[in-house]
Amino acid sequence: MNGVDRPAAVAGLRVAEAGPFLARLTRLDPAALVRLRPAAAGAVALWGRVPWGVLVARTVAGAVAGDLTVPATALLERMSAGRVDLPARRDHDWRWPVPPTSGEVVESVPVAELLRLGQAAAETLRSTRGRVGERVLRDALLEHVAIAVEAADGAAVEVRQGVVQAVLRMGLVTTDGDGVATVRTVGNWVGLATAHGEGWQQTGANLAVRIVR
């Protein structure tokens, strides 16, 4: 049925916890999907994808029977109305892999530094608003390496501005700058995790070819 499955089972999510994440996701993309995955006992991981291709996640209290995907807008509307049933499933429309685990912590970064990076990017965009090439500059900023750290094995780990922007735009940090975020890696994924959620982006690291002489 065009990738639309029958309505999903009750998830038991609370709008106070899941609502802000869904509201921000749908503000960025009204047609966004949200993938619900069982997390720890009594918890559900909500996954979404922002328009510039970064995956974001937040874990909230609740229960769900297996992975399932629904429209984020419809889920938020039902939760806000006090309904406990989920919208019709859209499992076939979720086309992106997600990190297999929460990854390995490589480095800690003050939240205040993430806010500074976001402010600097915003000021750069404001200075070129209305000019030719504004969109090109925006895309270049999202690909810019905002944080570069070194893993235990000496490998370079690069967090792009797009991941920083996703964490900030999704409200996964406190605006007072308190706390830290951790740079994480798993496979060819690089992420930023905070106390309120995570942002992840795939790299081409696992495609590298080493010539042995």
From TrEMBL:
DUF8185 domain location, by residue?
99-205
Any single Pfam family the record assigns to this protein: DUF8010
Instruction: Describe the location of the DUF8010 domain by residue ranges.
Output: 16-96
Q: What is this protein called?
A: Uncharacterized protein
